[in-house]
Each structure stands twice: as C-alpha cells, then as structure tokens.
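Appendix B, record 7
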Amino acid sequence: MSIAQHLNDGVRRREVLGWAMYDFANSGYTTVVLTAVFNAYFVSVVAGGADWATLAWTSTLAVSSLLVMFLMPAIGAHADLRGVKKRLLALTTVGCVASTAALIWAGPGALWLAVVAIVLSNFFYAVGESLIAAFLPELARREALGRVSGWGWSFGYLGGMLSLGLGLGYVLWAQSHSLPATHFVPVTMLLTAAVYALASLPTFLLLRERAQSQPRGVGEAGVGASLARLRQTWREARRYEDFAWLMACAVAYQAGISVVIALAAVYAAEVLGFQQIETMLLVFLVNIAAAVGALVFGNWQDRIGHRRALRITLAGWIVMTLLAASASGPGLFWAAAVLAGLCMGSSQSAGRAMAGLLSPPDRLAEFFGLWTFAVRLSSIVGPLTYGIVTWVTSGNHRVAILGTGLFFVVGWLVLARVDVERGARVAQQAMARP
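Structure tokens (predicted):
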C-alpha cells in the first residue's frame, strides 16, 4: 500500500513530511535539554550538587507542567474555535527556541535564571507538542493512525540524534582542549535551539490549516468562548468514557516515562558514575532504539490493535525498571536503556494514535489539549515522586527507580477499561454543541 492510501482525501505526502518535520525539530529539546545534558548539569553545576538539587530539578519541571495543565485545554479549545492551530504553533515554537537559547547564561549560581528558562521552554514545548498532534487525525485515515503516528515519532528521534550528535561532537572537541562543562554545555543549548528553529520551517511551509473559524455571537469569541467550550467538555466526560479512561492510563504510564526522560542522565551519573560523554552516547543509543520502535511498532499496532500494542510496551517498561534497578555495572544498564528506547518510541506513538481515534473530529485541538493535561499531570507526579523518594532516602536512586515501575503497572491495569472500538464510534458520532 502506498503512502497516499494511508492519508485522508486531499492530503498530500509533502504535508505529512511537513508534519513529521516538527517531531524532528522539537525532539532535540527533550533529548538534549531534558534527558542527556542540561538535567545533570543543573543538578551538579547550577545547583552545586546540593542535597536538594534533584528535587529542585523535578520541582522546576512540575511548575512548568502545572502551567500546561491549566492553560493547554483552553488553548486547544480556542484553536478549534478560531481555526488557528498553525498560528499558535508558530508562537510556541518561537517561545521554546528563545527560552532554550537563554540557557547559555545558566551557569554556577544562576539558579533562578535556569529555573525560569526551563519553566518557559518546557511550557512552550508541551503546547507545541499538543498542537502538532492535533493535526494527525486530519492527515491520516482512521485505520492508519498508528502507522502515520509512528512515522512522526521515528522521524522525530532522528532529529533528537542530530541535535545530540552536534552537541556530542562539540563536547568532544571542547574536552580535547580542556574546556570545562560551563563552556560546552551552554554551546549545546544554543545548537539545540538552532536545530529546532531551522528544522521546524518546513512544517510552516508545507502543513495546511484545515480547521475553520467557527462564528460566535457578540461576546462569545476569544478566551471566554474557549473556556466555556472546555467546561462543556468536562460536563460531557461520561459521554467520552473511553477517552477519560485513556487519560487516566496516560497519567500513570506517562509518569514513568517522564522519570526516564528527566532523570536517566542523573541516575546514570549518580548511581553508575557515568561521565558526560558516556551519558550522551547512552541517550544517542536510546534514540536509535526509540526510532526503530516507533517505526516498526507503528505498522504493527494498526494490525494487532492499539490497546494490545500499548499493553505490550507497558510490560516492557516494567522489565526495564527492574533491569535498571538491578544494574551494578554499565552492561545491564545499557541493556535497560535499549529496552527503554524501544518502549518509548512505541508507547508514545500508540498513545497519540489512540487519543486521535477517541477524539471527535471537529474538536481535535481541544481533546488533544485534554490529552496534554493528562500527560503534563504525569510530568508532575512522576519526576516529583522520584525527587521526593531520593530526598527522603538520602539519595537512594535504586529505590526511586523501582517506585517508577509501579506507574507502569497501574497504567497496564487501567488500560483494561478502555474499549477502543466503542470510544471511536462515540467520537465519530459526536457533534460539537454551541
């Protein structure tokens, strides 16, 4: 089957390329800033390795996620009402690029500058991630959502590898000239921001805005109408029972994924003594595995069913946490990292595809705003729980990673309540009410 046969009528292949390029562009932010480089730098250098440093990092991410939780659903509703997903996506892209670049000034003692820049950059990243996801059901046919979502995720990990590869090359050069982390980490932030800005340009050149502004009476436009639409969605929650259960499932398993994204480098450095180069190589390998997982699993999940596919990946996550907690040397931890990559790409792709299936076609940005609400809640619960456990146990990261495995167990159990076919029928039959 050709690519065109997976797409909705009127959708050109270059549009899918433009859509996937945004995953390519923004993946460098999570890969370099949140996963491989700046998180460990924040703990050891910016916060000076204090006992509260890990908790400070997770608390910073929690504040950013709180902002997303309370603002994104209304932003999504506004995007649907006014037909401005693409315009809002451009604004959030500029915001994330600028605040990521501002991290070049986050050195020793510049704690509050780093905190503000991370809060803003992570907020803009999350809003952009939600908006670009809302384009997926407009592009792909219902039976190919998993496949097309997998294309985007796998392509995105290639973008993460590009940003990380450029940063790794510079770090190797800097260390060969005996330059400290306070020199090369800010440069990697600037490289990441530049890749994000340049790689996102095809998205705005190729991707069409199909949503139309929905006329409202006087006084019913703008934020007020968006918030009213949001309240209506919450009141109708029982009508979208399967979407609600999927959100609950996402809160659980995405909490575990958030820990891996935000704290993998910290765990590797604090427990196994990884150096910066080793950590970056580890994350590079994780991205390769994630790209393979998203691409292969995206095709597979359309055949075996989205719920079954997601349950398989959650079982893999549980095994991964057991391997990581048991690792006393680099070998077993590298194996856990490869498994994490495979599970990350496939579970992220499966979750996004299921959210698209269960969302009413005329309220995509709004429902993906609710999906983002769940994912951001998980970004608070997961890393903050990890940070509290390490603080209470005087830095016992092994106990914290074992606790992380419980999030995947809960997600696996809650997923049993989701009936994808029933939820998809309800979403297709739903009509937006004034």
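Remarks on this record: The chain has 17 helices and no strands. Residues 145-176 form the longest helix (32 residues).
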